[in-house]
Amino acid sequence: MSFDAIIIGAGHNGLVAANYLAKAGKNVLVLERRALAGGQIATESYGDGFTVDALHAGGGLRPDVVADLDLARHGLPSSDAKHAYISLLPGGKQLHLVADANDAQTQVSICKLSAKDAAKWPEFVAFMDKAAAFLDAAYRTPMPRLPNIDLRRDGLPLAQLGWKLRRLGGKDMFRLIRSMSMSMVEFTEEWFESEPLRAAIAAVGIHGFTLGSMSAGTGYTLMHNWLNRGGLAHRQVAGGTARIADALVAALKANGGELRTASDVQKILVDRQRASGVRLANGDEIGARTVLSAADPRRTLLGLVGALELPPEFVWQAQSIKMRGSVAKVHLLTDGSHGLPAGTLAVAPTLKYLERAFDAAKYGEVSAQPYLEITTRDNVVSIHFQFAPYALKDGDWESQRGRLEQSAIEIVGEHFPALKASIRQIESITPADLEDDYGLTEGDLNHGQLILDQMFFMRPIPGWSNHRTPIDGLYLCGQGVHGGGGISGASGRNAAKALLKTRNA
Questions:
Q1: 3-state DSSP of 257-312
Q2: Most exposed residue of 57, 75, 374, 382, measured as fewest CB within 10 angstroms of its CB?
C-alpha cells in the first residue's frame, strides 16, 4: 500500500501531526515501534494497582490544538492549571506557591519569608503569564531558514510576532528580551530577595534540562516550562497522561487515519533524494508521498536516513545536536500511608544546592543531593530525579540503579518519615532506559537541549528550522524542532501545517 503520509512515532507530536493531515483529507498511517501509543505520555503498568504516568507528571496540549482537533469530543479530560507547588525546606518547613496573583495561602507563605517579596508576587505572576503568552505565539510562528529569508513567505508572520512583542509595552518587552538570556540566579535576583523563593522558581527553570541555576538561558527555559505547565505546578490529567494519547488516537480513527503499533521503522527509504516510504524491522516496505518523523532529529537523520544520503556539512551539524539527558524517574507503590500531600513537591532549597546538583552531572556523576520533584496519585509516589547523567564516568546504569532509588527515597523520607515503611514496590527509569525503551537519544526528553544555540530559528539545526530536511518529502515533527519540548503538540501542529502549505502535500 502507499499513503499520502507516514508518521514515524505515535507520541503526542506524531499523533497531532497525523490528525491535522487526516482532517485535511490525507491518507495517513502512523507507525509506532512499541506495543502502545503515547510515547512520553504513555501510562505504564508495573502490576496490580501500580499504574503510573511514566515520564511526565502531567501536561496539556495547547488550547488551539485541542480546539482544532475537537479532542474534548473524543474524550480528552480538562485539567486545572492552578495546583499547589510546594518547596520542601529544611526543618520541616514548606513554601506553598500557586501561580495566581490573588491566592491567599501563597501570600501568607511568602510573607513568612519576606513581606517585600509577597508584595512583588502579583507583578511577577502577571509578567510570567505575559511572557508565556508571547512564547506561545512564537511557537505558532514559522521560523525562517536563516540566512535566506523569503520576505513574501516569512515576513508577515514575523511582523505579527514582532507586533505581539511590542504590545507588551516598553517595560515588559525590554524585560522579556533581557530575561531570556539570563541565568536563574540573575533573573530571580531582579524580582525577589528571599533565597527559598528564588530557588523554588529556579527549579522550574531547569526542570528537564541539563542546566544549573547559574546557566545562561534559563530565563527562557523558565518561560517555556511556565507555558507548558500553566504556571509552577504540573497539570495532572484525570486518569493519567495516556488520556491525551487516547483522545488523539480516537480522533485519528474518526478522521480516517490508521495507527499500527509494534511496527518498528528501521529505514526511511530514499529514492533520488526524495523520501518514498519506510522499511520495517520485519522487512515490510510501505510507500508514501511524504514521511514525517516524530523521532529525535539525530536518530531520524543519522539512523533512519543515513549519513550517505545527506550533505557532509549537514551530517556534522546533526552529529553536533546537544542531547545530554540527565533525568531519571523513581516510582513507588505504597500502602497509602506515605504522608505526602497533593500537588508538586520540590526539593530545591537554595540556588547553590541546584548548581551543585548540576555540577555532579557535568562530571558524569549521579548527584548525591539531587533536585527532586515529587507527585502523588492515589497510592503511587513518583519522583523526578535530576541530575543523573546518561554518560556515567564510572560504571553503568544497571549498577547505579539501586543507588539512584535509595538516594531518592532517603531524601524524600527526610521530609516525610512515613514514606519508607509504606513502600511495597519500586520501579525506576534511568537515562539508559529512556534511550533503549523510549527511543530517546542520550535519554533527552526534549530531543535536544533547549539552550541558547538550539532555540527558535536554530532548532534543530541552523538553517533548517522549518521542519524540512535535505531529503525532499521528509519532515521533522517531534520534540527536537521549533515549538517542541514538554507536552504541547505545537511542533506536530506546525509540521503538519508546513506540509499542507506545499504544492506536493
A1: CEEECCCCEEEEEEECCEEEEEEECCCCEEEEEEEEECCCHHHHHHHHHCHHHCCH
A2: 75
Partners of 275 in beta bridges: 270
Report the C-alpha gap between 308 and 270 in whole angstroms.
Answer: 11
For 252-273, how does the pLDDT look when each residue is reduced to its tens digit (9 = 90+)? Answer: 999 999 999 999 999 999 999 9
C-alpha cell belonging to residue 299: 536518530
**Which pLDDT does position 95 carry in this prediction?**
97
Task: Specify the pTM.
Answer: 0.94
Q: What is the pLDDT of residue 449?
A: 94
Helix, strand, or coil here: 26? coil
pLDDT for residue 354 is more than 70: yes
How far apart (Å, rounded) are the C-alpha atoms in residues 470 and 300?
Answer: 12
CA dihedral over 76, 78, 82, 87, signed as positive or negative: negative
d(CA 464, CA 458): 7
Element (H, E) at 95: strand 94-97
Between CA 132 and CA 226 the distance in angstroms is 7
Work out the mean pLDDT of the chain and round it to a whole number.
Answer: 93
pLDDT digits (tens, 9 = 90+) for 362-397: 999 999 999 999 999 989 999 999 999 999 999 899
* DSSP, residue by residue, 448-493: S---GGGSGGGSSSTT--SSB-SSBTEEE-STTSTT-SSS--HHHH
Eight-state DSSP code of residue 38: B
Cis peptide before 389 (omega within 30 of 0): no
Measured distance CA(390)–CA(383) in Å, rounded: 18
Q: How many CB atoms lie within 10 A of CB 289?
A: 18
